[in-house]
Design goal:
Number of domains: 5
Strand order of the largest sheet: 10-11-15-14
Number of helices: 9
CATH class of the largest domain: Mainly Beta
CATH superfamily of the largest domain: Urease metallochaperone UreE, N-terminal domain
Distance between the termini: 84 Å
């Protein structure tokens, strides 16, 4: 029977990273492990295939040979065979030592620091063009007095006598042996008899931290900037977490944003709407002249191309949509009012108000139909 391609077997592309391969193998191994599928030869065979694929693809030299020559290139070397005697050894123990018995020897647990989230408020201009800013965040940092050990000066942590310094204890559950953090030392593997006066044995202290953040041009509300290692300090020598800066763009006095597009309202006079003309329209990088054709109705939308926002992930800039709004004149003098009355009277002759006429005709038909 011909062997299945290792990449297809693990459902991975040839560009898969070692972490991708490990994750795929873990999924298949958990599904087809003989302890979970007793007396199932097919499951055992699939487990063997997954194990062999993992062995080859996580070995740089073997993977290079396999990529070039396929299974034939590995024929002379050690196969990836599986026997009952090694079911809980080597690779499987390495990956599942915290679940099944026979894995790696326990060790003091190392904890990664927590990730933090910070909400950064920006003006629209800052979001569109980018900016550099400084933020201050509360965080847990390594205690400088004890250098993260948690022990007072002149003392040191002692090996936990419950777990023997391993940080883990084993609990038997059915056919499985489960590894859990030691309940006495909480996974540290050490007991602190004389806690540090600064951090009280925690190894970390709370402090405010100032950070510089470079905001790229084009960000929008909901976008996140990741600052690696600027989260909380880890425990037991573990790595620090990350800081995620979440963007929130404030409302703007003139513009509304929709993705890469901007929109605004442009007030125009009755005369400009009727006779046509031009108005100056603000944009984020200067003013443009918007030409208004004659007989323009209130609410009409004009597009000004590429005067919107250039997306942070690349691409062309969006557009600016200008919605013209007819502005009714206020504080009219007696003479001005008289002129408008004469003008209104002159509109009664001819079809000068088609929308108004259409509206009232529709109302008339509606009530006539209702009466019928």
């Amino acid at each position: 029977m011909a062997k299945q391609d290792f990449y297809k077997l693990l459902d991975l592309p040839k560009s898969a990273t070692e972490a991708d391969i490990k994750q795929a193998y873990r999924r298949l191994a958990m599904k087809y492990h003989p302890d979970r599928n007793p007396d199932d030869p097919e499951a055992e065979h699939k487990f063997k295939e997954a194990k062999e694929a993992y062995e080859v693809l996580t070995d740089a030299q073997k993977r290079a040979v396999y990529d070039q020559f396929g299974h034939a290139g590995l024929a002379g070397g050690r196969g990836g065979g599986f026997s009952a005697g090694e079911a809980f050894g080597d690779i499987f123990g390495e990956m599942f030592g915290d679940i099944f018995s026979g894995g790696q020897r326990g060790r003091s647990q190392v904890f990664r620091g927590a990730d933090l989230r910070y909400e950064l408020d920006l003006d629209l201009e800052q979001a569109v063009f980018g900016t550099d800013t400084e933020i201050q965040i509360p965080s847990l940092a390594e205690c400088k007095s004890c250098k993260g050990s948690g022990a007072a000066k002149g003392s040191s942590p002692k090996t936990c006598d419950t777990c023997g310094g391993q940080g883990q204890v084993r609990v038997q559950q059915s056919i499985f042996t489960i590894q859990q953090p030691c309940p006495r030392c909480k996974g540290r593997g050490k007991i602190i008899s004389s806690p540090c006066d600064t951090c009280f044995g925690q190894g970390r202290v709370r402090q405010d931290k100032k950070l510089s953040v470079t905001v790229p041009a084009g960000v929008d509300t909901g976008d996140r900037i990741r600052l690696n290692g600027d989260g909380e300090a880890g425990r037991n020598g573990g790595p620090a977490g990350d800081l995620y800066v979440e963007i929130r763009v404030r409302e703007h006095a003139i513009f509304e944003r929709d993705g890469s597009h901007l929109s605004c309202e442009v007030p125009i006079s009755f005369t400009t709407a009727a006779l046509g003309g031009s108005v100056e329209v603000p944009t984020l990088d200067g003013e443009v002249i918007l030409k208004i054709p004659s007989e323009t109705q209130s609410g009409r939308v004009f597009r000004v191309r590429e005067k919107g926002v250039r997306p942070v992930r690349g691409g062309s800039a969006g557009d600016l949509f200008c919605r013209v709004v007819l502005e009714t004149p206020v504080k009219l003098s007696a003479d001005q009012k008289e002129v408008l009355k004469k003008f209104e009277a002159s509109l009664q002759q001819g079809n000068h108000k088609p929308r108004e006429q259409s509206f009232f005709e529709g109302v008339k038909k509606f009530f006539t139909g209702a009466l019928d």
